[in-house]
Amino acid sequence: MTDARQDPAGRSGPRTRLPGRSSVMGRLFRAAILLYLAAAALITGALITETYLSARSDLERELTFHQRALERTLAGPLWSLDLEEVRKIATATADLPEIVGIRVTDHNQAGEFARAGELPDGDLTEGADAAAPGRGIAVSFPVEYSHAVGSTRVGHVTLYSSELVILERLRWHIALLVLAALLKTAILWFILDRVSRAILIRPLHSLVEATRRTGFDKLEPVTFDPATAKAAAGTEIESLRLAFNDMIGQLRRSRDALSALNADLESRVGERTRELEARTSEASAATARVEQSRRQVAAALEEAERAARAKSEFLALVSHELRTPLNSVLGFSELIQRQVDTKQDALNPAHIASYADAIHESGTQLLTLVNDILDLSRIEAGRMEVAPEWIDTTATTRTVVEMMRDPATKQRLSLECLLGPDAPMLKVDPRRYRQMLMNLLSNALKYTEAGGSIRIDGQRRADGWFEVVVADTGVGMPASDIAIALEPFGRTGDPTTRKLAGAGLGLPLVARMMQLHGGRLAIESAVNAGTSVMLRFPPHCVRDD
Protein backbone atom coordinates (compact mmCIF):
# COMPACT_ATOMS: atom_id res chain seq x y z
CA MET A 1 0.00 0.00 0.00
CA THR A 2 1.32 3.44 -0.86
CA ASP A 3 0.25 7.02 -0.20
CA ALA A 4 1.45 10.34 -1.71
CA ARG A 5 3.69 12.52 0.51
CA GLN A 6 5.68 15.67 -0.33
CA ASP A 7 9.37 15.94 0.43
CA PRO A 8 10.93 19.20 1.69
CA ALA A 9 11.67 20.30 -1.88
CA GLY A 10 8.04 19.99 -2.89
CA ARG A 11 8.41 16.69 -4.78
CA SER A 12 5.78 14.00 -4.26
CA GLY A 13 6.40 10.27 -4.24
CA PRO A 14 5.02 6.99 -2.98
CA ARG A 15 5.42 6.03 0.63
CA THR A 16 5.41 2.33 1.58
CA ARG A 17 3.54 1.28 4.69
CA LEU A 18 5.06 -1.78 6.34
CA PRO A 19 2.47 -4.38 7.40
CA GLY A 20 2.48 -5.98 10.82
CA ARG A 21 4.32 -9.05 9.46
CA SER A 22 6.36 -9.12 6.23
CA SER A 23 4.92 -11.18 3.38
CA VAL A 24 7.99 -13.47 3.30
CA MET A 25 7.88 -14.16 7.01
CA GLY A 26 4.13 -14.47 6.88
CA ARG A 27 4.38 -17.26 4.32
CA LEU A 28 7.08 -19.06 6.30
CA PHE A 29 5.06 -18.61 9.47
CA ARG A 30 1.88 -20.03 7.94
CA ALA A 31 3.72 -22.95 6.31
CA ALA A 32 5.42 -23.91 9.59
CA ILE A 33 2.19 -23.71 11.57
CA LEU A 34 0.23 -25.75 8.99
CA LEU A 35 2.91 -28.45 8.85
CA TYR A 36 3.04 -28.62 12.63
CA LEU A 37 -0.76 -28.77 12.89
CA ALA A 38 -0.84 -31.66 10.41
CA ALA A 39 1.88 -33.53 12.34
CA ALA A 40 0.19 -32.81 15.68
CA ALA A 41 -3.16 -34.03 14.33
CA LEU A 42 -1.59 -37.27 13.05
CA ILE A 43 0.32 -37.93 16.28
CA THR A 44 -2.68 -37.09 18.47
CA GLY A 45 -4.92 -39.30 16.33
CA ALA A 46 -2.41 -42.15 16.61
CA LEU A 47 -2.19 -41.74 20.39
CA ILE A 48 -5.98 -41.68 20.72
CA THR A 49 -6.30 -44.77 18.52
CA GLU A 50 -3.64 -46.63 20.54
CA THR A 51 -5.32 -45.62 23.81
CA TYR A 52 -8.71 -46.72 22.48
CA LEU A 53 -7.39 -50.13 21.33
CA SER A 54 -5.62 -50.63 24.68
CA ALA A 55 -8.81 -49.79 26.60
CA ARG A 56 -10.77 -52.16 24.38
CA SER A 57 -8.28 -54.96 25.13
CA ASP A 58 -8.58 -54.24 28.85
CA LEU A 59 -12.38 -54.44 28.58
CA GLU A 60 -12.15 -57.78 26.78
CA ARG A 61 -9.89 -59.10 29.56
CA GLU A 62 -12.39 -57.93 32.18
CA LEU A 63 -15.15 -59.80 30.33
CA THR A 64 -12.92 -62.89 30.38
CA PHE A 65 -12.54 -62.56 34.17
CA HIS A 66 -16.32 -62.35 34.51
CA GLN A 67 -16.56 -65.45 32.27
CA ARG A 68 -14.53 -67.48 34.77
CA ALA A 69 -16.68 -66.32 37.66
CA LEU A 70 -19.95 -67.02 35.83
CA GLU A 71 -18.80 -70.51 34.80
CA ARG A 72 -18.56 -71.44 38.48
CA THR A 73 -21.66 -69.50 39.58
CA LEU A 74 -24.09 -70.68 36.89
CA ALA A 75 -23.02 -74.32 36.72
CA GLY A 76 -25.13 -75.44 39.67
CA PRO A 77 -28.36 -73.54 38.86
CA LEU A 78 -28.22 -74.62 35.19
CA TRP A 79 -27.64 -78.27 36.16
CA SER A 80 -30.65 -78.19 38.52
CA LEU A 81 -32.63 -75.95 36.09
CA ASP A 82 -33.14 -73.35 38.84
CA LEU A 83 -34.15 -70.68 36.32
CA GLU A 84 -35.09 -68.15 39.01
CA GLU A 85 -31.55 -68.24 40.39
CA VAL A 86 -30.18 -68.00 36.83
CA ARG A 87 -32.24 -64.86 36.21
CA LYS A 88 -31.03 -63.29 39.48
CA ILE A 89 -27.40 -63.96 38.57
CA ALA A 90 -27.99 -62.56 35.07
CA THR A 91 -29.62 -59.41 36.46
CA ALA A 92 -26.80 -58.86 38.96
CA THR A 93 -24.23 -59.33 36.20
CA ALA A 94 -25.97 -56.82 33.92
CA ASP A 95 -25.70 -54.19 36.69
CA LEU A 96 -21.88 -54.24 36.41
CA PRO A 97 -20.64 -51.03 34.74
CA GLU A 98 -18.59 -52.83 32.08
CA ILE A 99 -21.46 -55.17 31.05
CA VAL A 100 -24.49 -53.86 29.18
CA GLY A 101 -26.26 -57.18 28.57
CA ILE A 102 -26.18 -60.93 29.23
CA ARG A 103 -27.93 -63.87 27.62
CA VAL A 104 -28.12 -67.42 29.01
CA THR A 105 -29.26 -70.30 26.77
CA ASP A 106 -29.34 -74.08 26.98
CA HIS A 107 -26.38 -76.28 26.08
CA ASN A 108 -27.10 -76.27 22.32
CA GLN A 109 -28.22 -72.56 22.26
CA ALA A 110 -31.70 -73.54 21.05
CA GLY A 111 -33.68 -72.18 24.02
CA GLU A 112 -33.15 -69.08 26.12
CA PHE A 113 -33.13 -69.32 29.94
CA ALA A 114 -32.55 -65.67 30.86
CA ARG A 115 -31.48 -62.31 29.51
CA ALA A 116 -30.78 -58.93 31.16
CA GLY A 117 -29.61 -55.49 30.14
CA GLU A 118 -29.42 -54.18 26.58
CA LEU A 119 -28.78 -56.77 23.86
CA PRO A 120 -27.88 -55.88 20.26
CA ASP A 121 -30.28 -56.53 17.39
CA GLY A 122 -27.99 -59.23 16.07
CA ASP A 123 -25.78 -61.43 18.23
CA LEU A 124 -22.10 -60.63 18.11
CA THR A 125 -19.60 -63.42 17.88
CA GLU A 126 -16.08 -63.60 19.09
CA GLY A 127 -13.27 -63.00 16.69
CA ALA A 128 -12.00 -60.24 14.42
CA ASP A 129 -15.43 -58.83 13.62
CA ALA A 130 -16.47 -58.63 17.27
CA ALA A 131 -13.28 -56.81 18.23
CA ALA A 132 -13.31 -54.37 15.33
CA PRO A 133 -13.42 -50.67 16.30
CA GLY A 134 -16.86 -49.13 16.14
CA ARG A 135 -18.72 -52.32 17.16
CA GLY A 136 -19.76 -53.77 20.49
CA ILE A 137 -17.87 -56.49 22.35
CA ALA A 138 -19.27 -59.95 23.05
CA VAL A 139 -17.81 -62.91 24.96
CA SER A 140 -19.60 -66.21 24.45
CA PHE A 141 -18.69 -69.38 26.36
CA PRO A 142 -20.24 -72.72 27.43
CA VAL A 143 -20.97 -73.62 31.05
CA GLU A 144 -20.07 -77.14 32.15
CA TYR A 145 -21.06 -78.87 35.35
CA SER A 146 -18.44 -81.13 36.92
CA HIS A 147 -19.67 -84.32 38.65
CA ALA A 148 -18.28 -87.64 39.74
CA VAL A 149 -18.09 -89.17 36.24
CA GLY A 150 -16.78 -86.06 34.42
CA SER A 151 -18.41 -82.86 33.21
CA THR A 152 -21.56 -82.05 31.27
CA ARG A 153 -22.33 -78.93 29.26
CA VAL A 154 -25.42 -77.43 30.87
CA GLY A 155 -25.74 -74.06 29.13
CA HIS A 156 -24.22 -71.26 27.11
CA VAL A 157 -23.61 -67.63 28.21
CA THR A 158 -22.97 -64.53 26.10
CA LEU A 159 -21.75 -61.29 27.71
CA TYR A 160 -22.18 -58.00 25.85
CA SER A 161 -20.38 -54.71 26.32
CA SER A 162 -20.59 -51.37 24.49
CA GLU A 163 -18.34 -48.79 22.88
CA LEU A 164 -19.85 -46.26 25.29
CA VAL A 165 -18.12 -48.02 28.20
CA ILE A 166 -14.75 -47.49 26.53
CA LEU A 167 -15.50 -43.88 25.62
CA GLU A 168 -16.64 -43.12 29.20
CA ARG A 169 -13.35 -44.44 30.54
CA LEU A 170 -11.23 -42.57 28.02
CA ARG A 171 -12.95 -39.21 27.77
CA TRP A 172 -10.58 -37.42 30.20
CA HIS A 173 -7.52 -39.10 28.68
CA ILE A 174 -8.55 -38.07 25.19
CA ALA A 175 -9.36 -34.56 26.38
CA LEU A 176 -5.88 -34.27 27.93
CA LEU A 177 -4.25 -35.45 24.68
CA VAL A 178 -6.16 -32.88 22.63
CA LEU A 179 -5.45 -30.15 25.19
CA ALA A 180 -1.73 -30.98 25.14
CA ALA A 181 -1.67 -30.78 21.33
CA LEU A 182 -3.45 -27.41 21.39
CA LEU A 183 -1.12 -26.10 24.10
CA LYS A 184 1.97 -27.11 22.13
CA THR A 185 0.53 -25.45 19.02
CA ALA A 186 -0.09 -22.24 20.96
CA ILE A 187 3.47 -22.29 22.36
CA LEU A 188 4.91 -22.84 18.87
CA TRP A 189 2.73 -20.03 17.54
CA PHE A 190 4.03 -17.70 20.24
CA ILE A 191 7.68 -18.66 19.68
CA LEU A 192 7.46 -18.30 15.90
CA ASP A 193 5.71 -14.96 16.24
CA ARG A 194 8.35 -13.62 18.63
CA VAL A 195 11.23 -15.01 16.56
CA SER A 196 9.81 -13.65 13.30
CA ARG A 197 9.44 -10.19 14.77
CA ALA A 198 12.94 -10.25 16.28
CA ILE A 199 14.80 -11.69 13.26
CA LEU A 200 12.99 -10.24 10.26
CA ILE A 201 10.20 -7.75 10.92
CA ARG A 202 12.00 -5.21 13.13
CA PRO A 203 15.17 -5.12 10.95
CA LEU A 204 13.07 -4.76 7.79
CA HIS A 205 11.03 -2.03 9.42
CA SER A 206 14.20 -0.12 10.28
CA LEU A 207 15.48 -0.47 6.70
CA VAL A 208 12.16 0.63 5.17
CA GLU A 209 11.97 3.64 7.47
CA ALA A 210 15.55 4.58 6.55
CA THR A 211 14.71 4.22 2.85
CA ARG A 212 11.67 6.44 3.31
CA ARG A 213 13.79 9.08 5.03
CA THR A 214 16.28 8.89 2.19
CA GLY A 215 13.52 10.01 -0.19
CA PHE A 216 13.26 13.21 1.89
CA ASP A 217 17.00 13.89 1.55
CA LYS A 218 17.78 12.54 4.99
CA LEU A 219 20.80 10.35 4.36
CA GLU A 220 21.08 8.54 7.67
CA PRO A 221 22.69 5.13 8.12
CA VAL A 222 20.62 2.33 9.63
CA THR A 223 21.51 1.39 13.21
CA PHE A 224 19.77 -1.52 14.91
CA ASP A 225 18.98 -1.54 18.60
CA PRO A 226 21.03 -4.07 20.63
CA ALA A 227 18.35 -6.78 20.61
CA THR A 228 17.70 -6.46 16.88
CA ALA A 229 21.44 -6.32 16.08
CA LYS A 230 22.01 -9.53 18.06
CA ALA A 231 19.17 -11.30 16.26
CA ALA A 232 20.31 -10.15 12.77
CA ALA A 233 24.04 -10.85 13.28
CA GLY A 234 25.48 -13.07 10.53
CA THR A 235 22.27 -13.05 8.46
CA GLU A 236 21.29 -11.57 5.09
CA ILE A 237 19.55 -8.76 6.97
CA GLU A 238 22.89 -7.59 8.37
CA SER A 239 24.41 -7.73 4.87
CA LEU A 240 21.52 -5.69 3.54
CA ARG A 241 22.03 -3.10 6.30
CA LEU A 242 25.73 -2.78 5.48
CA ALA A 243 24.98 -2.40 1.74
CA PHE A 244 22.38 0.25 2.49
CA ASN A 245 24.81 2.18 4.68
CA ASP A 246 27.41 2.05 1.89
CA MET A 247 24.82 3.50 -0.49
CA ILE A 248 24.06 6.24 2.05
CA GLY A 249 27.78 7.09 2.22
CA GLN A 250 28.01 7.42 -1.54
CA LEU A 251 24.90 9.58 -1.65
CA ARG A 252 26.35 11.84 1.03
CA ARG A 253 29.53 12.37 -0.95
CA SER A 254 27.50 13.16 -4.07
CA ARG A 255 25.36 15.56 -2.10
CA ASP A 256 28.41 17.37 -0.73
CA ALA A 257 29.72 17.80 -4.27
CA LEU A 258 26.43 19.25 -5.45
CA SER A 259 26.03 21.48 -2.41
CA ALA A 260 28.86 23.77 -3.53
CA LEU A 261 27.12 24.35 -6.86
CA ASN A 262 23.73 24.95 -5.28
CA ALA A 263 24.89 27.24 -2.45
CA ASP A 264 23.70 30.40 -4.10
CA LEU A 265 20.34 28.92 -5.03
CA GLU A 266 19.84 27.50 -1.57
CA SER A 267 20.53 30.88 0.01
CA ARG A 268 17.70 32.46 -2.02
CA VAL A 269 15.16 29.73 -1.54
CA GLY A 270 16.21 28.81 1.98
CA GLU A 271 13.61 30.92 3.66
CA ARG A 272 10.87 29.58 1.44
CA THR A 273 12.06 26.05 2.01
CA ARG A 274 12.02 26.46 5.79
CA GLU A 275 8.50 27.84 5.60
CA LEU A 276 7.38 24.90 3.51
CA GLU A 277 9.06 22.48 5.89
CA ALA A 278 7.31 24.04 8.86
CA ARG A 279 3.95 23.87 7.10
CA THR A 280 4.59 20.30 6.03
CA SER A 281 5.42 19.32 9.59
CA GLU A 282 2.34 21.06 10.90
CA ALA A 283 0.18 19.41 8.23
CA SER A 284 1.62 15.98 9.07
CA ALA A 285 0.94 16.48 12.78
CA ALA A 286 -2.56 17.75 12.05
CA THR A 287 -3.23 14.78 9.76
CA ALA A 288 -2.03 12.39 12.45
CA ARG A 289 -4.25 14.05 15.03
CA VAL A 290 -7.27 13.93 12.69
CA GLU A 291 -6.63 10.27 11.90
CA GLN A 292 -6.31 9.42 15.59
CA SER A 293 -9.52 11.32 16.35
CA ARG A 294 -11.29 9.50 13.50
CA ARG A 295 -10.23 6.12 14.86
CA GLN A 296 -11.33 7.06 18.37
CA VAL A 297 -14.73 8.24 17.11
CA ALA A 298 -15.16 5.08 15.02
CA ALA A 299 -14.30 2.88 18.01
CA ALA A 300 -16.69 4.85 20.23
CA LEU A 301 -19.49 4.55 17.65
CA GLU A 302 -18.93 0.82 17.30
CA GLU A 303 -18.98 0.37 21.07
CA ALA A 304 -22.15 2.45 21.32
CA GLU A 305 -23.81 0.35 18.59
CA ARG A 306 -22.90 -2.88 20.42
CA ALA A 307 -24.26 -1.49 23.66
CA ALA A 308 -27.46 -0.37 21.90
CA ARG A 309 -27.95 -3.82 20.35
CA ALA A 310 -27.37 -5.55 23.69
CA LYS A 311 -29.82 -3.17 25.38
CA SER A 312 -32.45 -3.73 22.69
CA GLU A 313 -32.16 -7.51 22.95
CA PHE A 314 -32.37 -7.42 26.75
CA LEU A 315 -35.38 -5.05 26.70
CA ALA A 316 -37.14 -7.17 24.09
CA LEU A 317 -36.78 -10.22 26.34
CA VAL A 318 -37.85 -8.72 29.67
CA SER A 319 -40.05 -5.75 28.73
CA HIS A 320 -43.21 -7.88 28.67
CA GLU A 321 -42.38 -9.50 32.02
CA LEU A 322 -41.78 -6.11 33.63
CA ARG A 323 -44.69 -4.34 31.94
CA THR A 324 -47.40 -6.83 33.00
CA PRO A 325 -46.89 -6.62 36.82
CA LEU A 326 -46.19 -2.88 36.60
CA ASN A 327 -49.49 -2.33 34.79
CA SER A 328 -51.20 -4.36 37.50
CA VAL A 329 -49.56 -2.32 40.29
CA LEU A 330 -50.41 0.99 38.60
CA GLY A 331 -53.95 -0.05 37.72
CA PHE A 332 -54.98 -1.29 41.15
CA SER A 333 -53.21 1.55 42.96
CA GLU A 334 -55.07 4.01 40.67
CA LEU A 335 -58.39 2.37 41.60
CA ILE A 336 -57.59 2.82 45.30
CA GLN A 337 -56.46 6.41 44.65
CA ARG A 338 -59.69 7.24 42.79
CA GLN A 339 -61.84 5.89 45.61
CA VAL A 340 -59.89 7.92 48.15
CA ASP A 341 -59.88 11.09 46.00
CA THR A 342 -63.64 10.91 45.41
CA LYS A 343 -64.10 10.46 49.20
CA GLN A 344 -66.55 7.63 48.79
CA ASP A 345 -68.34 7.02 52.02
CA ALA A 346 -68.68 3.29 51.57
CA LEU A 347 -65.26 2.04 50.68
CA ASN A 348 -65.49 -1.70 50.17
CA PRO A 349 -62.80 -3.34 52.36
CA ALA A 350 -63.01 -6.54 50.31
CA HIS A 351 -62.22 -4.63 47.12
CA ILE A 352 -59.38 -2.74 48.80
CA ALA A 353 -57.96 -6.04 50.11
CA SER A 354 -58.16 -7.68 46.68
CA TYR A 355 -56.44 -4.64 45.14
CA ALA A 356 -53.69 -4.84 47.76
CA ASP A 357 -53.29 -8.59 47.13
CA ALA A 358 -52.96 -7.96 43.39
CA ILE A 359 -50.40 -5.18 44.00
CA HIS A 360 -48.43 -7.43 46.40
CA GLU A 361 -48.51 -10.33 43.94
CA SER A 362 -47.32 -8.12 41.07
CA GLY A 363 -44.58 -6.61 43.24
CA THR A 364 -43.46 -10.09 44.29
CA GLN A 365 -43.33 -11.12 40.62
CA LEU A 366 -41.19 -8.08 39.82
CA LEU A 367 -38.87 -8.80 42.78
CA THR A 368 -38.53 -12.44 41.73
CA LEU A 369 -37.64 -11.45 38.16
CA VAL A 370 -35.04 -8.92 39.32
CA ASN A 371 -33.55 -11.42 41.82
CA ASP A 372 -33.35 -14.09 39.12
CA ILE A 373 -31.56 -11.69 36.76
CA LEU A 374 -29.12 -10.68 39.51
CA ASP A 375 -28.47 -14.32 40.52
CA LEU A 376 -27.83 -15.27 36.89
CA SER A 377 -25.47 -12.30 36.47
CA ARG A 378 -23.51 -13.30 39.59
CA ILE A 379 -23.22 -16.89 38.40
CA GLU A 380 -22.09 -15.85 34.90
CA ALA A 381 -19.52 -13.50 36.48
CA GLY A 382 -18.27 -16.31 38.78
CA ARG A 383 -19.16 -14.35 41.91
CA MET A 384 -21.86 -16.63 43.38
CA GLU A 385 -20.66 -18.90 46.17
CA VAL A 386 -22.46 -21.73 47.91
CA ALA A 387 -22.11 -22.81 51.55
CA PRO A 388 -22.93 -26.54 51.61
CA GLU A 389 -24.02 -28.22 54.83
CA TRP A 390 -25.78 -31.48 55.70
CA ILE A 391 -29.56 -31.06 55.59
CA ASP A 392 -32.56 -33.28 56.27
CA THR A 393 -33.67 -33.84 52.69
CA THR A 394 -37.22 -34.91 53.51
CA ALA A 395 -37.93 -32.11 56.02
CA THR A 396 -36.47 -29.37 53.81
CA THR A 397 -38.35 -30.61 50.75
CA ARG A 398 -41.66 -30.85 52.62
CA THR A 399 -41.19 -27.27 53.85
CA VAL A 400 -40.99 -26.04 50.25
CA VAL A 401 -43.99 -28.20 49.26
CA GLU A 402 -46.10 -26.68 52.04
CA MET A 403 -45.12 -23.18 50.88
CA MET A 404 -46.47 -24.03 47.40
CA ARG A 405 -49.55 -25.87 48.70
CA ASP A 406 -51.86 -22.85 48.62
CA PRO A 407 -51.10 -21.83 44.99
CA ALA A 408 -51.55 -25.46 43.93
CA THR A 409 -54.90 -25.68 45.70
CA LYS A 410 -56.09 -22.47 44.04
CA GLN A 411 -55.24 -23.97 40.64
CA ARG A 412 -56.98 -27.26 41.58
CA LEU A 413 -53.74 -29.23 41.33
CA SER A 414 -52.62 -32.23 43.36
CA LEU A 415 -49.24 -31.60 45.03
CA GLU A 416 -47.57 -34.36 47.04
CA CYS A 417 -44.11 -35.17 48.41
CA LEU A 418 -43.19 -38.87 48.26
CA LEU A 419 -39.85 -38.53 50.06
CA GLY A 420 -39.89 -40.69 53.16
CA PRO A 421 -37.83 -40.73 56.38
CA ASP A 422 -35.37 -43.16 54.74
CA ALA A 423 -34.19 -40.50 52.28
CA PRO A 424 -30.44 -39.78 52.71
CA MET A 425 -29.09 -36.47 53.93
CA LEU A 426 -27.65 -34.10 51.31
CA LYS A 427 -24.68 -31.74 51.60
CA VAL A 428 -26.01 -28.63 49.84
CA ASP A 429 -26.54 -24.93 50.45
CA PRO A 430 -29.99 -24.98 52.17
CA ARG A 431 -31.05 -21.61 50.71
CA ARG A 432 -30.08 -22.54 47.16
CA TYR A 433 -31.69 -25.98 47.52
CA ARG A 434 -35.00 -24.38 48.52
CA GLN A 435 -34.65 -21.83 45.71
CA MET A 436 -34.12 -24.62 43.14
CA LEU A 437 -37.21 -26.53 44.34
CA MET A 438 -39.29 -23.31 44.36
CA ASN A 439 -38.29 -22.58 40.74
CA LEU A 440 -39.11 -26.13 39.60
CA LEU A 441 -42.46 -26.19 41.43
CA SER A 442 -43.35 -22.74 40.04
CA ASN A 443 -42.69 -24.02 36.52
CA ALA A 444 -44.78 -27.13 37.19
CA LEU A 445 -47.69 -25.04 38.52
CA LYS A 446 -47.43 -22.71 35.53
CA TYR A 447 -47.57 -25.42 32.85
CA THR A 448 -50.00 -27.88 34.49
CA GLU A 449 -53.70 -27.46 33.83
CA ALA A 450 -56.45 -27.74 36.46
CA GLY A 451 -57.02 -31.32 37.62
CA GLY A 452 -53.40 -32.31 37.03
CA SER A 453 -50.87 -33.51 39.59
CA ILE A 454 -47.34 -32.65 40.70
CA ARG A 455 -45.14 -34.91 42.79
CA ILE A 456 -41.66 -34.78 44.32
CA ASP A 457 -39.82 -38.07 44.76
CA GLY A 458 -36.25 -39.23 45.29
CA GLN A 459 -34.24 -42.28 44.41
CA ARG A 460 -30.70 -43.62 44.79
CA ARG A 461 -29.11 -44.53 41.45
CA ALA A 462 -26.93 -47.57 40.86
CA ASP A 463 -23.84 -45.35 40.43
CA GLY A 464 -24.28 -43.83 43.94
CA TRP A 465 -25.85 -40.56 42.80
CA PHE A 466 -29.06 -39.40 44.45
CA GLU A 467 -31.69 -37.59 42.41
CA VAL A 468 -34.68 -35.51 43.48
CA VAL A 469 -37.43 -35.72 40.84
CA VAL A 470 -40.10 -33.05 40.25
CA ALA A 471 -42.69 -34.55 37.88
CA ASP A 472 -45.92 -33.03 36.55
CA THR A 473 -48.71 -33.96 34.17
CA GLY A 474 -48.61 -30.63 32.32
CA VAL A 475 -48.40 -29.67 28.68
CA GLY A 476 -44.76 -30.78 28.32
CA MET A 477 -42.50 -29.77 25.46
CA PRO A 478 -40.74 -31.47 22.53
CA ALA A 479 -37.28 -32.87 23.17
CA SER A 480 -35.83 -30.37 20.68
CA ASP A 481 -36.90 -27.46 22.94
CA ILE A 482 -35.14 -28.72 26.08
CA ALA A 483 -31.82 -27.12 25.11
CA ILE A 484 -33.61 -23.81 24.41
CA ALA A 485 -35.34 -23.95 27.82
CA LEU A 486 -31.94 -24.26 29.54
CA GLU A 487 -30.64 -21.03 27.99
CA PRO A 488 -31.22 -17.67 29.78
CA PHE A 489 -34.48 -16.13 28.52
CA GLY A 490 -34.95 -19.32 26.50
CA ARG A 491 -38.65 -19.30 25.69
CA THR A 492 -40.17 -20.66 22.49
CA GLY A 493 -42.38 -18.26 20.50
CA ASP A 494 -42.62 -14.46 20.65
CA PRO A 495 -41.98 -13.31 24.26
CA THR A 496 -44.34 -10.34 23.87
CA THR A 497 -47.34 -12.44 22.84
CA ARG A 498 -47.02 -15.75 24.74
CA LYS A 499 -49.86 -16.62 27.10
CA LEU A 500 -47.79 -17.93 30.01
CA ALA A 501 -45.78 -15.52 32.17
CA GLY A 502 -42.11 -15.92 32.92
CA ALA A 503 -38.76 -14.62 31.67
CA GLY A 504 -37.21 -18.04 31.02
CA LEU A 505 -34.70 -17.81 33.91
CA GLY A 506 -35.91 -20.61 36.24
CA LEU A 507 -34.36 -23.65 34.56
CA PRO A 508 -31.06 -21.89 33.61
CA LEU A 509 -30.64 -20.77 37.24
CA VAL A 510 -31.32 -24.28 38.57
CA ALA A 511 -28.88 -25.82 36.05
CA ARG A 512 -26.07 -23.43 37.02
CA MET A 513 -26.72 -23.84 40.77
CA MET A 514 -26.49 -27.61 40.35
CA GLN A 515 -23.12 -27.13 38.65
CA LEU A 516 -21.95 -25.08 41.65
CA HIS A 517 -22.86 -28.10 43.85
CA GLY A 518 -21.04 -30.52 41.55
CA GLY A 519 -24.32 -32.03 40.35
CA ARG A 520 -26.31 -32.10 37.13
CA LEU A 521 -29.80 -31.16 35.94
CA ALA A 522 -31.66 -33.55 33.62
CA ILE A 523 -35.05 -33.06 31.89
CA GLU A 524 -37.40 -35.58 30.33
CA SER A 525 -40.48 -34.22 28.58
CA ALA A 526 -42.90 -34.83 25.76
CA VAL A 527 -45.79 -32.79 24.37
CA ASN A 528 -49.02 -33.38 26.38
CA ALA A 529 -47.21 -36.04 28.43
CA GLY A 530 -45.82 -33.95 31.28
CA THR A 531 -42.29 -33.08 32.36
CA SER A 532 -39.85 -34.68 34.81
CA VAL A 533 -36.91 -32.63 36.09
CA MET A 534 -34.13 -34.47 37.95
CA LEU A 535 -31.70 -32.83 40.41
CA ARG A 536 -28.79 -35.29 40.50
CA PHE A 537 -26.33 -34.99 43.41
CA PRO A 538 -22.91 -36.76 43.34
CA PRO A 539 -22.08 -39.52 45.87
CA HIS A 540 -19.88 -37.26 48.04
CA CYS A 541 -22.95 -35.07 48.71
CA VAL A 542 -25.09 -38.03 49.88
CA ARG A 543 -24.99 -39.59 53.36
CA ASP A 544 -27.12 -42.30 54.93
CA ASP A 545 -27.59 -41.85 58.68
Unreliable segments of 5+ consecutive residues: 1-21, 123-134, 493-500
Number of helices: 12
Q: How would you characterize the largest beta sheet?
A: 5 strands, mixed
Main sheet: which strands, in order across?
Answer: 8-10-11-13-12
Shape: flat
Instruction: Write down the secondary-structure element order.
Output: EEHHEEEEHHHHHEHHEEHEEHHEEE
Ends: how far apart?
77 Å
Care to count the β-strands?
A: 14
Q: Based on helices, strands and strand pairing, what is the structural class? A: alpha+beta
Q: Considering DSSP H and I runs of 4 or more, what fraction of the residues is helical?
A: 55-70%
Your description of this structure?
By secondary structure, the chain is an alpha+beta fold. The protein has helices at 23-79, 83-94, 163-214, 226-232, 236-261, 263-341, 349-380, 393-403, 405-410, 430-446, 482-485, 506-516, and strands at residues 2-6, 12-16, 101-105, 112-117, 137-147, 150-161, 389-391, 414-417, 425-428, 453-460, 466-472, 520-525, 531-537, 542-543. The longest helix is centred in the middle third of the chain and has 79 residues, at 263-341. Residues 1-21, 123-134 and 493-500 have low confidence and may be disordered. The chain has twelve helices and 14 strands. The strands form four sheets. Strands 8-10-11-13-12 form a five-stranded mixed beta sheet. A four-stranded antiparallel beta sheet has the order 4-3-6-5, covered by helices on one side.
